[in-house]
Every structure is written in C-alpha cells, then in structure tokens.
C-alpha cells in the first residue's frame, strides 16, 4: 500500500525530464513544486474537496443516527417483529438493490442532482447494523434494568447509557462509512449532473481515466512546467491525504470497536 504512494509522491516532486525518461521510482529527482502550485490554484479541486468533506461528514452523521437507532431497537428483546426485521436486514446481504429501481426511486423522491442522493440511499448497511446490534447486546442488562426502575424511558436509556458506552463501535462504524463515502464516485456519476456538485473522487476519476488534467492552464503552459502524469500523481495524493490523516485519530477505537462488535461471550 505504501509503495505506490511513495512512487506517486516522488513523481509529483520530480523534474519533467526525469519523469519523461521513466527514471523516477521511490525518490524524487530534480525538485519541482509546480504541480502543487497548480493544484492549489485550481478552484474546481477545492470546490470538489468541499463537496466531499460535506457529504462525508453529514453522510456519516446520518448513517450513525439511523444505524444506531435500528441496531439498538433490534437488540431489545421486547421489540415487536424483531426477528422478522432482522431477517429482512440479513436478506440484503444476498440480494442487493438493482441499479435501475434504485435510480427510479431516487428520481421519484426528487433527490436526483442533489447531494442527498449521495448520502441517504447508502446510509444503512446490513454489516454495520449487525456489528452495532451485537455490541448493544453485549452491554450489561443490569444497567438497563436499573435505569428502567429509576423511571428512564427507552429513549433515555439509548441516549444516556447505550450511546456513551458504545463510542468504540460508533467510531468503528463512522470510520467504515466515512472511508466508503469519501472514496465513492459511482453514485455521483449516476445521480449528479451539475459539475459544480461533483465530489473530489469524480473529478479525480475524470483526470486519471479521461485525461482531463488541466483546468485553466493551456497545454503549452502545462508541458513547460510538469507532465500530465505528474498532475495525476499530485491530484491522487491531494484526494487521499484527508482520509489518511483522519484514520490514525480513530485507529485505537477502530481496533477495540471491531473486536467488541464482532465477538460476544
């Protein structure tokens, strides 16, 4: 995983002649900062970065709300039709939603060409629900009984006891969903028609796969300062860095939450 990133970093910082000669591997040759000067000056990249940050942050909060509420409800034995709902959730492991019905539903709800189409349809995942449900079931039942004896409602138990004790698994689910949301581009290709609403990964895809590596620069200006390969390498690193920075902050909770959410004595 690290080797390709080091290679891209070396390519983005190398001089044009060494990159064209295929002489750059894991160490830059002839320092060149023109790639990142161009990236920082491109408004499209910053606008797409803002869109990605917005849908990742808000989409993760929406996913955590729906996942935690349904997982807590499924973990309570007194919930009506609990087994039937759980079977319906597990069924989605086998049969995923087809693309055309999903698109028609989003269009009927008038969410197409809006950022809600990138956050709402993927807010719930069976895997995340099962992990969080298993975690809730592992919490001490005596705490819930004591809270009920003190007059606390189910909403109070959920907000004051279950959620504070579930921060490791919440951090785990948040990381799962945030990484998936950040790297997602297919939904935007289907639902988004306005280019100003493209997330960063769609812009990155267009640059890497379709060769759209220049924004306001002419081809001659770009050729004199850096190559298209260098621009692609710089944009890939630009799109990867934010989520790489977030991951170490949640790694401790991630390991603990994944273990506690998947195992039960």
Automatic annotation (TrEMBL):
Biological process (GO), any one: transmembrane transport
Keywords for the protein's UniProt record, in alphabetical order: Cell membrane, Membrane, Transmembrane, Transmembrane helix, Transport
UniProt cross-references to InterPro entries, sorted A to Z: MetI-like, MetI-like_sf
Residue intervals passing through the bilayer: 45-72, 84-104, 116-136, 157-179, 231-250
Any Pfam family hit: BPD_transp_1
Coiled coil: none
Any one of the GO CC terms: plasma membrane
Primary location: membrane
Topology in membrane: Multi-pass membrane protein
Presence of the UniProt keyword Transmembrane helix in the record: yes
Domain ABC transmembrane type-1 residue range list: 49-250
Subcellular localization: Cell membrane
Homology family: Belongs to the binding-protein-dependent transport system permease family.
Protein name, as recorded: Carbohydrate ABC transporter permease
Native source organism of the sequence: Paenibacillus hemerocallicola
Organism phylogeny: Bacteria, Bacillati, Bacillota, Bacilli, Bacillales
């Amino acid at each position: 995983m690290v080797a390709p990133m080091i290679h891209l970093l070396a390519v983005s910082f190398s001089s044009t002649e060494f990159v064209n000669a295929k002489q750059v591997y894991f160490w830059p040759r002839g320092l060149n900062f023109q790639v990142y000067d161009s990236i920082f000056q491109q408004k499209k990249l910053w606008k797409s970065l803002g869109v990605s940050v917005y849908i990742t942050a808000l989409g993760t909060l929406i996913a955590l709300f729906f996942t935690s509420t349904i997982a807590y409800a499924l973990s309570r034995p007194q919930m009506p039709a609990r087994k039937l709902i759980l079977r319906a959730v597990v069924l989605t492991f086998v049969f995923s939603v087809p693309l055309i019905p999903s698109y028609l539903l989003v269009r009927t709800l008038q969410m197409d060409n809006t950022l809600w189409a990138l956050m709402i349809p993927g807010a719930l995942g069976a895997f995340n629900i099962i992990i969080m449900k298993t975690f809730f079931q592992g919490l001490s039942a005596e705490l819930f009984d004591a809270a009920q004896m003190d007059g606390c409602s189910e909403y109070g138990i959920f907000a004051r006891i279950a959620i504070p004790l579930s921060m490791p698994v919440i951090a785990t689910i948040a990381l799962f969903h945030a990484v998936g949301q950040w790297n997602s581009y297919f939904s935007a290709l289907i639902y988004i028609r306005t280019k100003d609403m493209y997330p960063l990964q769609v812009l990155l895809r267009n640059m890497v796969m379709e060769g759209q590596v220049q924004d306001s620069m002419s081809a001659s200006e770009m050729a004199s300062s850096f190559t298209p390969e260098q621009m692609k390498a710089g944009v890939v690193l630009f799109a990867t860095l934010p989520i790489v920075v977030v991951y170490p902050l949640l790694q401790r909770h991630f390991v603990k939450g994944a273990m506690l959410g998947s195992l039960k004595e």
